[in-house]
Amino acid sequence: MSSHPEPGAGVDDPLRAAAETMREVRARCVWSQRITHQDLVPYLIEESHEVIDAVETGTRDDLREELGDLLWQVLFHAAIAAQDPEDPFDIDDVARTLTEKMVRRHPHVFAGEVAETPEQVLVHWNAAKAAEKRTRRSVLDGVPRGMPALALAQKLVGRAAQVEVAVEPGDKADVPASEAELGDALLALVATARVAGWDAERALRERLRVLEDDVRAAEAAS
User: Fold this and answer.
1) Angle 135-140-169 (CA atoms, 0-180°, nearest 5)?
2) What is the chain's alpha carbon radius of gyration, rounded to the nearest angstrom?
3) Quick check: 113 and 107 in contact, CB under 8 A?
C-alpha cells in the first residue's frame, strides 16, 4: 500500500484539490517532470478542439469531461511556471490576474457604469482593453498567428476594418445567405484547391500577409 496521501485529500475546494493534484503529479511523475511549456502546446490545441467537439456534437457529460481536460492544461502550465528560476508564478497568480482583468473590463458590473445592451457592454470592454494595451502600436498586435487560417482571417478582417482597410465581400449574387450556404461555399473552394493542386491553408495565409501589410501601411499613413 502506498504511503502517499490521496491527491487533493483533505481539500474541500474542488479547484484547489485539482491544483494540488497537479502539483503532486509534477513533483512525482517522471514524465510530467520533463515537460515544458513548449511540449504542452500540441496537447493544449488538441484539448481545445475536443472541447469544441463536445460543445457542437457531444453530451453534457462529454462537455464536463473535456472542460476538465482543458483545465488540466492550465494547471499544468501554471505548475511548470511555478518552477521557473527567474520569474515564477503559480495558479493563484494566474487566477488573481484574471480576476483583476475581468473586474476592470466589466465596470457596468463592478464600478457603477451602465450597460443596458450588449453593444454598450462591448464599448466598456473595448475601452478597458485599450487602456490595458497602450503599448501596442498596431491593431494587429496581440492577434495570435498560430490560429487556423480561417479563424485568423476573420480576426484580421475585423481588425483591418478599424483602420478602414476594407475587405469587400464577393458579388452579391454569389454571397451565401446563411451559415449553411457559407459552409457549402467554403467546401467548394477547398475542393477547387484540391483539384488544382493548391494548398488552401497556405493560399489564405499568404493573402492574409498582404492584408497585414495593407493595414500597417494605412496605420503608418494616418
Assistant:
1) 155
2) 22
3) yes
Range with the lowest mean pLDDT among 48-57, 60-69, 127-136, 142-151? 127-136
Domains in the chain, ordered, with CATH?
Answer: 14-89 (1.10.287.1080), 92-134 (no CATH), 143-221 (no CATH)
Contacts within 8 Å (CB) and 24+ apart, 93-101? 101/132
**Cell 478599424 belongs to which residue?**
162
Give every CB contact of residue 154 below 8 A, 6+ residues apart in sequence. Answer: none
Angle at 67 between CA 64 and CA 72, to 5 degrees: 125
Dump pLDDT digits (tens) for 39-55.
999 999 999 999 999 99
Supply 118's cell numbers: 450588449
What pLDDT is recorded for position 59?
97
Comparing CA positions, the residue from 96, 222, 102 lying closest to residue 165 is 222
Residue with cell 454571397: 175
29 pLDDT higher than 80? yes
Instruction: Answer for the pair 153, 204: CB distance below 8 angstroms, yes or no.
Output: yes
Characterise 100 by phi-psi region: left (phi > 0), alpha (psi -120 to 50), beta (else). Answer: alpha
Q: Note the pTM of the prediction, 2 decimals.
A: 0.75
Q: Please say if the pLDDT value at position 133 is more than 80.
A: no
